[in-house]
Amino acid sequence: MCPTHLTLPHMKGMNSAIAILTQALRTVPDFPKPGIQFIDITPILQNAQLFRLVINLICERYAKKRIDAVAGIDARGFIFGAAVACQLGVGFIPIRKKGKLPYKTIELSYDLEYGSNTIAIHEDAVLPGQKVALVDDLLATGGTAAAALNLLKQLDADVQESCFFIELSFLKGRELLGDSPCHSIITL
Predict the structure, then answer these.
(1) What are phi and psi of 99, to 5 degrees?
(2) Is residue 112 part of a domain?
(3) pTM of the predicted model, to two decimals?
(4) How high is the mean pLDDT of the chain?
(5) Among 54, 121, 175, 176, which has the minimal tally of Cβ within 10 Å of its Cβ?
(6) What is the tally of structural domains in the chain?
(7) Per the residue annotation, which of 52, 60, 107, 113 is the catalytic one?
(8) Catalytic residue among 76, 107, 123, 161
(9) What is the CATH number of the domain that holds 133?
(10) Is 76 among the residues known to form the active site?
């Protein structure tokens, strides 16, 4: 079961937790190409208390929802998704880049804000009707998340919600997710 509170110095409530996490983010200009303002989460990953805070905030959403599994998107979604799955005591489903999974897969190609990609999932990763939470680090233009949702739905998963550590709302990625429930810890 997820601990419901993490004590950090001078932290009072959810707004303070979000402020602390937001301040810890680092913006890297022109990465991976000119014009992109990359939001770097590594300062949070390097701090055990901050990383635990993020995982606890996500776990609190699903602790009482009887999730059967957590799906995470390659690569940073693995960091958050696997930790959430472990803490909730459920399985983890990797959604990986094409050619990285060893067994039979289904695949889906999609456009990114700076290119295109193909992701895959094992064809037996989800049992029909299994309750799944999709977890990733960032919702930007929504292409990757929408493709991951589509793959899970092709396997008849009951996707309860997509949860993102950070959402870049100005890129309107949530629109690609349609009516699928979506939650973000930090919205920029």
Answers:
(1) 85, 0
(2) yes
(3) 0.90
(4) 92
(5) 175
(6) 1
(7) 113
(8) 76
(9) 3.40.50.2020
(10) yes
